[in-house]
Design brief:
mainly alpha; Fumarase C, Chain B, domain 1; Fumarase C, Chain A, domain 2; 2 domains; two-stranded antiparallel ribbon; 56% helix; elongated; histidine ammonia-lyase activity
Length: 498
């Protein structure tokens, strides 16, 4: 049960991953009151934006009463102008949930049947086919939400299982009737930040798992390179006071606790300090953790917000700009920095492990070097993904372009900002997969000594899908197999947070 305005991120993640969404029964009363207040204003002959007027630059055009239903249909059809690949189904589930929760707060002037129609699609797993591109993140996510809304009225297309079917057929298979739109209901459905917010939330959930995975990979690399755990001493981090740094250092200490490899070189090691990619993990990953925590706060607020326009507040109809997704754009841009930096420091650890001068391990982590190239090109792959993420990390929120004949003259670009995070997360998963393979290989040069329990468990996960590297073979399947584990959160679950 999720109350409108009170959704928490774990509950939303559960819905995204296939769980049900149920609302407390008391939502209907406030929604009915909002719809009644709007109907009274329309009956009084008042000009209300998007209810009995045109949209955007056409807001001064008055629409006759007998054409109000057609106005909403025309809005959905004309605004369904998206392009590109279809959004992933889990993201669409989250969009449906966010839109239902927003409308159920009773400030949008829609009837309860509209909320019920969204919940019915979610319950039946009839998921609108939404092209990924076409929103600038202001006036809401108009094009993608129009594609979603078409399915409600029996048009557009929807996923039913793995098939994409015409909207009318998809509804019929689920036993659902098309929705007949009332005044403002089309506008309320497609005006809002639910697409950009859902994309950013899905990326946040992935980023949180990837950050935890990066700590496990980093700890494994420390032991593979016979690095020191002194830089993770709590006293160092308490003197700085950065909360993410303190938490990351604690997680790294826990990951390395009990390592025989660490104990074997605690005395007599000629190295005074490790390279930054090992030593400064708390400072780098901790800063990333703080960025993700801030983004989570912003996105949780946005997930609970009412972001369409105009809004019905009591008996008044107020025009404003809650559809402007600047908070989401800023959160997405911050998350991009975190994803890029986690990949950058991981790639440097891979380079360290493959360099015999820095690591003390065989060149490129393979015996009989020369005959075998080992991890030489795997490191190059990681470097390529790192470079791509650096380019993708450029901020999108500052790249406004005016739309709608300059009526909508400043936009957030939040949807593109959030969409690019998914490519970045995919790249980071690839980089971390190479590091996990390299670090697992490095550990084996220290046998029979064992690393710490969580690191050995991670080593076991790697070796469950990729054999040790004794002689050159095709590496791409190994990277793909480990990446699949990374994306399923198998390594992230081995990290204990204090």
């Amino acid at each position: 049960m999720i109350a409108p305005g009170q959704a928490r991120l774990p509950a939303l993640r559960a819905v995204m991953e296939g769980g049900p969404l149920a609302l407390p029964e008391d939502w209907r009363a406030v929604v009915e009151a909002s719809a009644a207040a709007l109907a009274a204003r329309v009956a009084g002959g008042e000009a209300l934006y998007g209810v009995n007027t045109g949209f955007g630059k056409l807001a001064s055009t008055r629409i006759p009463g007998d054409q109000l239903a057609q106005l909403q249909l025309n809005l959905l059809r004309s605004h369904a102008a998206g392009t590109g690949p279809l959004l992933p189904r889990p993201v669409v589930r989250l969009i449906l949930a966010l839109k239902a929760l927003s409308l159920a707060r009773g400030a949008s002037g829609v009837r309860p049947v509209v909320v019920e129609a969204l919940l019915a699609l979610l319950a039946a797993d009839v998921l609108p086919a939404i092209p990924a591109r076409g929103s600038v993140g202001a006036s809401g996510d108009l094009a993608p939400l129009a594609h979603l809304s078409l399915v409600l009225i029996g048009e557009g297309e929807a996923f039913v299982g793995d098939a994409v079917l015409p909207g009318a057929e998809a509804l019929a298979r689920a036993g659902l009737a098309p929705l007949a739109l009332g005044p403002k209901e089309g506008l309320a459905l497609l005006n809002g930040t639910q697409v950009s917010t859902a994309l950013a939330l899905a990326a946040l959930f992935a980023a949180e798992d990837l950050l935890a995975t990066s700590l496990l990979a980093g700890a494994m690399s420390v032991d593979a390179a016979r690095g020191s755990d002194t830089p993770f001493d709590a006293r160092i981090h308490e003197l700085r006071g950065q909360p993410g740094q303190i938490r990351v250092a604690a997680a790294l200490r826990a990951l390395l606790a009990g390592s025989q490899i660490r104990e074997s070189h605690r005395e007599g090691d000629p190295r005074v300090q490790d390279p930054y990619s090992l030593r400064c993990q708390p400072q780098v990953a901790g800063a990333c953790l703080d960025l993700l925590a801030h983004a989570a706060t912003v996105l949780e607020r946005e997930a609970n917000a009412v972001t369409d326009n105009p809004l019905v507040v009591g008996a008044e109809v107020l025009s404003g700009g809650n559809f402007h997704a600047e908070p989401v754009a800023f959160a997405a841009d911050a998350m991009a920095l975190a994803l890029a930096e986690l990949g950058a420091i991981s790639e440097r650890r891979i380079a360290l492990l493959t360099d015999p001068v820095l690591s003390g391990l065989p060149a490129f982590l393979v015996r009989e070097g020369g005959l075998n190239s080992g991890f030489m090109i795997a490191q190059v792959t990681a470097a390529a993904l790192t470079a791509e993420n650096r380019a993708l990390a450029a901020p999108r929120s500052v790249d406004s372009l005016p739309t709608s004949a300059n009526q909508e003259d400043h936009v957030s670009m939040a949807t593109g900002a959030a969409l690019r995070l998914h490519d970045m997360a995919d790249n980071l998963a690839g980089i971390l997969s190479v590091e996990l393979l390299a670090a697992a290989q490095g550990l084996e040069f220290h046998r029979p000594l064992q690393s710490a329990p969580a690191i050995e468990a991670a080593h076991g996960l790697v070796r469950g899908v990729a054999a040790a590297w004794e002689a050159d073979r095709v590496m791409a399947p190994d990277i793909a197999a480990v990446k699949a584990l990374v994306e399923r959160g198998r390594f992230a679950r081995l990290v204990e947070w204090s």
